[in-house]
Amino acid sequence: MSVVMCVFLAAEVIYFYFIFSKNYSPEKSDCIVILPEAKERIIEGCRLAREGYAPNFTIVGKDSSKLKVWAEKFGLPGSINQIITGKSRSTFEDALNIKNISTEHGFGSILIVTSTYHLPRTSFLLRTLIANPSIMIKLYGVSRAEVSASDQKKTSADRKMIFHEMIKFWGSIIEMCVYKSTGNLISDIPTYIRIKKFASSWILF
Description:
CATH architecture: 3-Layer(aba) Sandwich
Distance between the termini: 26 Å
Helix content: 55-70%
Number of helices: 7
Strand content: 5-15%
Low-confidence stretches: none
CATH topology: Rossmann fold
CATH superfamily: HUPs
Number of domains: 1
Structural class: alpha/beta
Strand order of the largest sheet: 3-2-1-4-5
Number of strands: 5
């Protein structure tokens, strides 16, 4: 069992390194999709929409009133179509909503805007859920907002965030497996919520 775990962990490290080593530049697409909740993601995604990278735009999990507020705040032209997604409580549900709108609206390409540290998990979920070669998934990583701290503290914070992502990666896989096998969202199960809160308090420091 320990050997199997080591193999899976080694594969995860290699996968994260592969994703982080790539250079992601914004490309024109059918729809700009911003993953919540970090403000820097929304700011950058709105900039790309304003500069004409896509005729459609959404922030996953936000209703029409929230989209309107951000569109007005960052001066998005009225010609940009605002896409409404379902509610979302996790990165897996973000990915599921993205799959649904891509299919519903017939998008041939989507530009995903999220934090750089969040790219490996986001990419894995989307490419697993959207097993459709006719939909091109393009990624764009946004650096987290600068904090007033020394370089050493920033590096330590970055490593901590990546470690947390590597733990959450497995949680997202469990969510996806439950959904694919039962058709149910694991976040609807009260017992899972309690277990998740306990595990987060114990593992995520």
